[in-house]
From TrEMBL, chain A:
<feature type="transmembrane region" description="Helical">
    <location>
        <begin position="94"/>
        <end position="123"/>
    </location>
</feature>
<keyword id="KW-0560">Oxidoreductase</keyword>
<feature type="transmembrane region" description="Helical">
    <location>
        <begin position="603"/>
        <end position="621"/>
    </location>
</feature>
<dbReference type="InterPro" id="IPR035973">
    <property type="entry name" value="Cyt_c_oxidase_su3-like_sf"/>
</dbReference>
<comment type="pathway">
    <text>Energy metabolism; oxidative phosphorylation.</text>
</comment>
<keyword id="KW-0249">Electron transport</keyword>
<dbReference type="InterPro" id="IPR023615">
    <property type="entry name" value="Cyt_c_Oxase_su1_BS"/>
</dbReference>
<dbReference type="GO" id="GO:0046872">
    <property type="term" value="F:metal ion binding"/>
</dbReference>
<feature type="domain" description="Heme-copper oxidase subunit III family profile">
    <location>
        <begin position="676"/>
        <end position="850"/>
    </location>
</feature>
<feature type="transmembrane region" description="Helical">
    <location>
        <begin position="306"/>
        <end position="326"/>
    </location>
</feature>
<feature type="transmembrane region" description="Helical">
    <location>
        <begin position="338"/>
        <end position="362"/>
    </location>
</feature>
<feature type="transmembrane region" description="Helical">
    <location>
        <begin position="182"/>
        <end position="206"/>
    </location>
</feature>
<feature type="transmembrane region" description="Helical">
    <location>
        <begin position="675"/>
        <end position="697"/>
    </location>
</feature>
<comment type="similarity">
    <text>Belongs to the heme-copper respiratory oxidase family.</text>
</comment>
<dbReference type="InterPro" id="IPR000883">
    <property type="entry name" value="Cyt_C_Oxase_1"/>
</dbReference>
<feature type="domain" description="Cytochrome oxidase subunit I profile">
    <location>
        <begin position="29"/>
        <end position="562"/>
    </location>
</feature>
<dbReference type="GO" id="GO:0005886">
    <property type="term" value="C:plasma membrane"/>
</dbReference>
Length: 852, 390
């Protein structure tokens, strides 16, 4: 950046006298300037976590309000039997969009949004490791969300419920129009953003903690972020795999879910719920994490049972991947599998119980201070416990056979989600608002809103248990009179409007002008965790100096803690070179490793998101040329982004960060954040691939004739040739990296070029196999599955080509050198995964036919 | 539907609520039409089961006319033809009993947890040590749920083999189709992964007769999308999935007429994809199936000519005539059914005419086009003829 050139020559931090107010003022001025949001319209190019996090949070709340209006339309339609307020078609669009938006545009993103704001504060970090990635995720979310929500204004919203079961949704004859495509492509696009956020948050928790904050000293919210982001990483990719199968069937008639041609509609249900059930905990655990931050503050004591609650959170994460079939009890699966999943579904109640009792025990042994956040927490507890108890009921198979797909389930899921997500979020809003806006929300309005919400919620949703038990299925736009459904439905509608009134009061409280109100006090609730160090009014720099932490509640336990931070007595009290910097520490015990320089504001992430969005939207309407053009622009933009803003060679190797400590500015390999980001991304990528392989093996197990006896398959020769090229590319990349590190630059460049060539050959040979054996993907599910695996793997080989080409170019441009080799180190890591993908694909498509 | 005062749950409620001047039979709206209540035949209504619903609801209210009214409305739903509390099948009754146990347990646990949380916020600081707190976490969060859930799980699992025990009654194949139910009595179908349900046996639609006290095997398939077959009064639901034939064994315990619905969203008219189940004695069942196997009763009627002339036979079969379409419901004995349009309108000539002339309005999303362009007299003739097909 040009600013670096004009930077004043500032002495190293360790030599400065932090007790001198003049020194501190100079430092603060520099920090303020470096971290300030750009002025005017360039504000929208900001990438600072606080700014992006606030946009993200506000946008998800806006989507929630939109989906809430849809819910009110649904309730109005159902207030009386045989109503005609909405047509059947509009009703189906409204309820589908309500569920979809609440799940994908509110419940999941709000966790990411809140975490992007809070995580750096909780960790005493200046920013997250990849600020531009956060911004990219936000813009993807905004574009995808508007696209999905906007569809209803054109009567083109999806109509088949938020889990979109095929074959209803995959065949144009059942669902004409663009609704299903908008759901699929719009949400796939948002899933990409979710995974980007997960990568960012995992690396943030593991690598950006302040010195001394070992894993067992982390604030509980950070633990929950780690668990939830890891769950996203393994839960979303199966859905992406499912989405790919789905869209290939809908757009190109590849018969993955069509039983006439060997497919099976149940495959989608498995892939969807392998995502869908962890998803429930993905949205619920972050809210529990908010409680775990708020309750100790209002009990004025550390959480009791820290290890218990951490273990419970991790346990919930694990178990949640083993109970997806409880959404499929009625599909006719064998009794033995139902028994297993029933047991797993009951088991998940145990860690949930532990978390709740940790809170109760903390309250019991503490000194409770009443407040609006605690009011909402008590409401959350009352509602959630009831939802949990009905959850235990529906996990019992015979009971679920009766109430599955009825209003009993509608009631259950709203008790769980509103009690387990919305009420804690509102508690968090009242709790954290002073950090965000320097002022408090109104206690009086908060109490009114609470009572309206809790009364409205129970009046609205409690009768639904009864409606379901007396035979009301879900997703019906009308119901006949005289079944006894009139009264409970009318009561539910009244309750829904009371509940909405409560939400409106909160919206008013947030938006009302409060120009003359006094600022809130600093650390207004007398909390013990790092985020409350923030001064009022807040500064953009995140934290004045990066502290050394030796307690879970440093404000309570470490004497003089806030003053030491304020006076810059800890690390990195300055921005000597006018760069945005944050500290990177080691994964387990948080030893300082690196002074990481982050990129500043830029419109590039917004452009990349725009082009990516444009390609998804073009695909929805079958504009293939436009789609590929937009995709190409997107790739070019991303390369431009990486070229200029990543692995920048610094002007000096080390930097004095204060207190006599010098840290390197550039590190590569397993200590660097980008290596971790690549590793984590590839874990997600490998999970999606496993989802596709699961599809192949699933068909193999349910059909005795898969592959069909008359199908030739891709043969042995070409897949094996491809495998040889994959191995060659992998070896060439590794050797090239080794040579580069030894300083043999020309040889390394040669091998990069050779690796790029062999990976193209690997892709070509892999696709040539099914091509020469004339496998027709529309004829039967077997050729479709083979083609899909081949294409997926070939794309990975081609991405490997682009990466090696990029490294070659970087090397020629002098941006990749024996000493500064992040790019090639990360590409070598990529090739481990790509070669593994090639091996598995060849083994599956070439060897399974031999088993016949 | 009339609920006699002799009905023990009702007596119990009236005794509890003690409203002066409230005597005599209770008339419950105009429920005789499409949504008629269970028909009790021969006065053999077993009251031992299913009473719990009404009694418990009754006890939860104090005497006051609006609450009494509300109670009565709720009870009418509770005992309604579409209710899981209607106590008309082995599985439904067992599950209802399980529900009351679980509900009791849930209420106790909820009050315990909420009571504890209230106490925790009021307890004097320092009154409880951290050790007590940790014990609470272990016993309340770990041990107690593990024990309760294990008991519940064992209890729930051991019910399942009974529900899936082999049949000893007839075998009926049911195909969920957009947006109605095709029925074959004496079907040769077998459960498993199969391309489609065989179209063999005695065909009917949207109404299923079952013999009381027999375990009848229902084989469920679909040629288009996933539906879910549900008769709440008799048993839990099972999905009809294209490419598979699922098996559900039901054991109706009480004669009567009950409602069934599609429980899995299947498209625009999903909400109006209902059907009726009539539980009868074994002899009545056999007589009924034999009658359904016969060709149509009236073959000389101006309505039949209009029916054929307007191409209705392209989609509908009426055995004994040229009409042999396979797309829509078999109409050979349409007038013997309680409803038309898949459980949405009571069977009578006026409704038949209405359904033919404004199909799309009565049932949005239905596959059959509206024949409103036909002259009224032709529609009336078709309706009259169909109305005679007993």
């Amino acid at each position: 950046m040009s600013q670096a050139a004009n930077a004043p020559d500032v002495p190293p931090a360790s030599t400065r006298d932090q007790e001198d107010p003049k020194v501190r003022e100079e430092q603060e001025e520099r920090l303020r300037k470096v971290w300030a949001s750009p002025p005017g319209w360039r504000y929208w190019s900001d990438t600072n976590n606080t700014t992006v996090g606030v946009w993200y949070t506000a946008t998800s709340f806006a989507f929630m309000l939109f989906a809430g209006v849809l819910a009110l339309m649904v309730r109005t339609q159902l207030s009386v039997p045989e109503n005609d307020f909405l047509t059947a078609d509009l009703y189906n669009q409204a309820y589908t969009l309500h569920g979809t938006v609440m799940m994908f545009l509110f419940a999941v993103p709000i966790f990411e949004a809140v975490s992007i704001i809070l995580l750096p504060q909780l960790l005493g970090a200046r920013d997250l490791p990849f600020p531009r990635l956060s911004a990219f995720g936000f813009w993807c979310f905004l574009i995808g969300g508007i696209f999905v929500c906007g569809s209803i204004f054109f009567g083109q919203a999806p109509t088949s419920g938020w889990f979109m079961y095929p074959p209803l949704t995959t065949q144009e004859r059942f669902t004409p129009g663009y609704g299903a495509d908008i759901w699929l492509l719009g949400l796939s696009f948002i899933e990409v953003a979710s995974i980007a956020a997960a990568v960012e948050l995992i690396v943030g928790v593991l690598k950006c903690r302040p010195p001394g904050m070992r894993l067992n000293l982390m604030p509980l919210y950070a633990w929950y972020i780690l668990v939830v982001a890891t769950m996203i990483l393994f839960a979303f990719p199966p859905l992406i795999a499912g989405d790919i199968l789905f869209e290939l069937e809908r757009l190109f008639n590849w018969p993955f879910f069509d039983p006439e041609r060997g497919g099976d509609p149940l495959l989608w249900q498995h892939l969807f719920w392998i995502f869908g059930h962890p998803e429930v905990y993905i949205i619920f655990l972050p809210s529990i994490a908010l409680l775990a931050m708020i309750i100790p503050t209002f009990a004025q004591r550390p959480i009791l049972g820290y290890s218990w609650i951490v273990l419970a959170a991790v346990g919930t994460g694990f178990i949640s991947f083993g109970l997806w079939v409880h959404h499929m009890y009625t599909t006719g699966l064998p009794t033995i599998s139902l028994g297993f999943f029933s047991a797993a579904s009951e088991a998940v109640a145990i860690p949930t119980g532990v978390q709740i009792f940790v809170f109760l025990a903390t309250c019991l042994t503490g000194r409770i201070i009443y407040s609006v956040p605690m009011l909402f927490i008590s409401g959350a507890l009352a509602i959630f416990v009831l939802g949990g108890l009905t959850g235990v009921m529906v996990a019992i198979v015979p009971f679920d056979w009766q109430v599955h797909d009825t209003y009993f389930i509608v009631a259950h899921l709203h008790y769980v989600i509103i009690g387990g997500v919305l009420f804690p979020l509102v508690a968090g809003l009242y709790y954290y608002w002073p950090i965000l806006s320097d002022r408090r929300l109104s206690d009086r309005l908060g109490k009114i809103a609470f009572w309206l919400m809790i009364v409205g919620f129970n009046v609205g949703f409690f009768p639904m248990h009864y409606s379901g038990m007396i035979g009301m299925p879900r997703r019906i736009w009308t119901y006949p009179a005289n079944l006894g459904l009139e009264l409970p439905n009318l009561i539910s509608t009244v309750g829904a409007f009371i509940f909405a009134a409560g939400i409106l009061i909160i919206v008013f409280d947030v938006l009302r002008p409060r120009g003359k109100e006094p600022l809130a006090k600093r650390n207004i609730w007398n909390a013990g965790t790092l985020e409350w160090v923030a001064d009022v009014p807040g500064e953009d720099w995140g934290i004045r100096s990066v502290p050394i932490v030796s307690s879970r509640y440093p404000i309570w336990d470490q004497p003089n803690f806030i003053d030491d931070i304020d006076k810059g007595r800890f690390y990195m009290p300055d921005a000597e070179e006018m760069k945005r910097e944050t500290m990177v520490t080691s994964v387990l015990d948080a030893q300082p490793l690196q002074c990481l320089r982050g990129p500043g504001p830029s419109f590039v992430p917004m452009c990349a998101a725009f082009f990516l969005g444009a390609s998804f939207i073009a695909a929805t309407f079958h504009y293939w040329t436009a789609m590929f053009a937009a995709l190409l622009f997107c790739v070019v933009t991303i390369i431009h982004w990486l070229w200029n803003a990543t692995s920048v060679i610094p002007e000096k190797e080390e930097k004095d960060v204060g207190r006599g400590l010098s840290l390197p500015i550039y590190i590569a390999g397993p200590h660097s954040v980008s290596w971790w980001a690549m590793f984590i991304t590839m874990l997600g990528d490998a999970t999606a691939f496993v989802g596709l392989v699961f599809g192949y093996i699933y068909f193999f197990t349910i059909h005795t004739d898969f592959p069909p006896p008359d199908a030739d398959g891709p043969g042995l020769l070409w897949p094996l040739v491809s495998l040889a090229f994959f191995a060659a590319s992998w070896l060439l990349t590794l050797v090239s990296h080794r040579l580069l590190r030894r300083g043999r630059v020309s040889a390394a460049r040669l091998l990069m070029a050779a690796g790029a060539a062999t990976s193209v050959a690997a892709a070509a040979a892999l696709l040539w196999g099914p091509w020469v054996t004339d496998l027709q993907p529309t004829v039967h599910v077997y050729p479709a599955t083979v083609w899909l695996l081949a294409i997926w793997t070939a794309i990975h080989a081609l991405v490997g080509t682009v990466m090696l080409g990029y490294c070659l170019a970087r090397s020629l441009a002098g941006k990749l050198t024996p000493k500064y080799d992040i790019d090639l180190a990360n590409v070598a890591l990529y090739w481990h995964f790509a070669a593994g993908t090639g091996l598995v694909t060849v083994a599956v498509i070439a060897l399974f036919p031999l088993a016949n | 539907m009339r609920i006699a005062l002799a009905d023990p749950p009702m007596t119990a409620i009236l005794a509890l609520t003690r409203v002066p001047g409230f005597t005599g039979p209770i008339e419950e709206g105009q429920s005789s039409g499409m949504a008629g209540g269970p028909i009790r035949q021969g006065g053999q209504h077993r009251v031992s089961r299913g009473t719990s619903c009404s009694v418990r609801l009754g006890r939860s209210f104090k005497a006051s006319p609006p609450l009494l009214l509300a109670t009565l409305v709720l009870i009418s739903g509770c005992r309604g033809p579409q209710s899981t509390f209607a106590d008309a099948g082995l599985e439904a009754s067992s599950v209802a009993a399980l529900f009351w146990w679980m509900l009791g347990g849930a209420v106790l646990i909820w009050f315990f947890v909420i009571g504890l949380s209230v106490y925790a916020t009021k307890a004097h600081p320092g009154a409880h040590s951290d050790k007590t707190g940790l014990r609470l976490i272990i016993w309340g969060g770990c041990v107690f749920p593990t024990v309760v859930l294990t008991i519940l799980l064992v209890f729930g699992l051991q019910m399942m083999p009974d529900f899936r025990a082999p049949a000893n009654g007839p075998r009926i194949a049911i195909s969920g189709e957009r947006f109605w139910w095709r029925v074959f009595y004496d079907s040769p179908a077998e459960p498993g992964v199969a391309r489609s349900l065989p179209h063999e046996g005695i065909e009917s639609a949207n109404e299923i007769w079952l013999p009381v006290g027999r375990r009848t095997e229902l084989l469920l398939g679909s040629p288009d999308v996933i539906h879910s077959f549900w008769v709440p009064a008799i048993a839990g639901k099972t999905d009809t999935i294209p490419g598979r034939i699922n098996r559900l064994v039901v054991e109706p315990t009480r004669e009567g007429l009950y409602n069934g619905v599609c429980a899995e969203f299947c498209g625009t008219a999903h909400a109006q994809m209902a059907f009726r189940v009539r539980v009868v004695s074994q002899e009545d069942y056999e007589t009924y199936v034999a009658a359904q196997g016969q060709p149509a009763a009236v073959l000389d009627h101006p309505g039949l000519d209009a029916f054929l002339a307007n191409g209705c036979g392209a989609c509908h079969t009426v055995r004994g005539t040229e009409a042999d379409g396979r797309v829509g419901p078999d109409l050979t004995h349409v007038a013997s059914r309680e409803t038309i349009g898949a459980g949405i309108l009571a069977m009578n000539e006026a409704n038949l005419a209405r359904f033919i002339s404004s199909t799309e309005h009565v049932k949005p999303g239905v596959q059959m086009p509206s024949f409103g362009v036909l002259p009224d007299e032709e529609i009336a003739a078709i309706a009259a003829w169909l109305g005679s097909l007993q």
